[in-house]
């Protein structure tokens, strides 16, 4: 601990000599490094936000780059990102973060997810160090353009942040306008190994689905930080949703052949869909910048008559702009084919 304090003291002196002041999301001035080349995201949404702004400025990850909720590989992501060390997370579910370990990577700034249920705990932990932190709003879909601008300015990537923000605003307005007069589609979000874990209707985990013109059949108060509320099949049968969105491929494969689930309206009409996860989940876990594409995919599923955009072209645009990847027609087919 004494060694850590010495490191913090040196870092604080160096930081105050080269600093700039930016206003945070509430308009309050925050002192940040003038030049930022080593940044850490306190949560996966912030890590992925950093990736699309400038992956070369990332010092590490919360969890392994590839995990059960995505399909991260060199097809869509750069090698440096995939080889970044796992520093840890404040959120559990993996390697817990150690402040002394974090300091060894010499971060100049930590981006903190303002809407996170653990934001106060995370902020207090970071306050124990000399690392400046910056709150980024990222829960609501409408927050994303602002998040790109704030984070871009904070890490010295304002031009890139503005490009992503402007594109996101255009897409968000397009989706919002398309579904604004449509009757909300009753959906169920199937999670867990049996598909009987789900989210409450106001959870940030279903933000994209709600925005795209859906209405969650499971109305409740979230019982824990992680969500994943358990229900019985009898409850689901009573809900009898019009659409089912499935998080995991293995579960999706089980559900579409399960005689019991086939009694549900969604399966009878063929409206059960698997969330795309390349390179990151398009919808949730974590709710990342991929939601800019995810809300279009969802609007296409929920309201195909109202949302008439060319999803192939929109997917190609998104991957080019956000991930610097030129998709082939075959890749687009693989990304969207199971859900067309």
Automatic annotation (TrEMBL):
Keyword field contains Signal: yes
Domain Fe/B12 periplasmic-binding residues, every copy: 38-306
UniProt keyword annotations, A-Z: Signal
Signal peptide location: 1-19
UniProt keyword annotation of Methyltransferase present: no
PANTHER family cross-referenced by the UniProt entry: MOLYBDATE-BINDING PROTEIN MOLA (PTHR30535:SF34), VITAMIN B12-BINDING PROTEIN (PTHR30535)
Pfam families (alphabetical): Peripla_BP_2
Example GO BP: cellular response to iron ion
Gene3D superfamilies (UniProt xref): 1.20.58.2180, Nitrogenase molybdenum iron protein domain
InterPro entries reported in the protein's UniProt record: ABC_Transporter_SBP (IPR050902), ABC_transptr_periplasmic_BD (IPR002491)
Official protein name in the record: Periplasmic binding protein
Chain coiled-coil ranges: none
């Amino acid at each position: 601990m004494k060694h850590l304090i010495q490191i913090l003291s040196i870092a604080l002196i160096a930081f105050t000599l080269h600093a700039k002041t930016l206003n945070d999301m509430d308009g309050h001035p925050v002192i940040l490094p003038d030049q930022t080349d080593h940044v850490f995201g306190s949560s996966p949404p912030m890590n992925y936000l950093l990736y699309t702004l400038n992956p070369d400025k990332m010092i590490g990850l919360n969890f392994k780059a590839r995990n059960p909720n995505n399909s991260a590989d060199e097809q869509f992501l750069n090698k440096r990102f995939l080889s970044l060390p796992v520093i840890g997370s404040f959120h559990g579910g993996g390697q817990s973060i150690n402040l002394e370990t974090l300091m060894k990577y010499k971060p100049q700034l930590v981006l903190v997810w303002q809407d996170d249920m653990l934001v106060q705990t995370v902020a207090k932990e970071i306050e124990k160090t000399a690392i400046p932190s910056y709150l980024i709003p990222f829960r609501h879909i409408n927050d994303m353009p602002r998040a790109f601008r704030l984070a871009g300015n904070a890490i010295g990537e304002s031009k890139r942040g503005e490009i992503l923000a402007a594109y996101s605003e255009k897409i968000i307005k397009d989706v919002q306008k398309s579904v604004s007069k449509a009757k909300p589609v009753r959906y169920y979000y199937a999670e867990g190994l049996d598909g009987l874990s789900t989210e409450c209707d106001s959870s940030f985990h279903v933000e994209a689905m709600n925005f795209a013109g859906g209405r969650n059949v499971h109305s409740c108060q979230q019982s824990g930080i992680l969500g994943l509320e358990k229900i019985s099949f009898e409850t689901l049968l009573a809900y009898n949703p019009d659409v089912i969105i499935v998080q995991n491929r293995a579960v999706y494969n089980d559900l579409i052949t399960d005689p019991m689930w086939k009694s549900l309206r969604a399966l009878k009409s063929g409206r059960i869909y698997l969330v795309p996860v390349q390179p990151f989940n398009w919808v949730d876990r974590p709710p990342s910048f991929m939601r800019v594409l995810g809300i279009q995919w969802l609007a296409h599923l929920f309201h195909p008559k109202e949302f008439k955009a060319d999803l192939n072209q929109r997917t190609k645009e998104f991957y080019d702009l956000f991930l610097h990847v030129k998709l082939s027609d075959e890749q687009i087919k693989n990304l969207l084919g199971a859900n067309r």
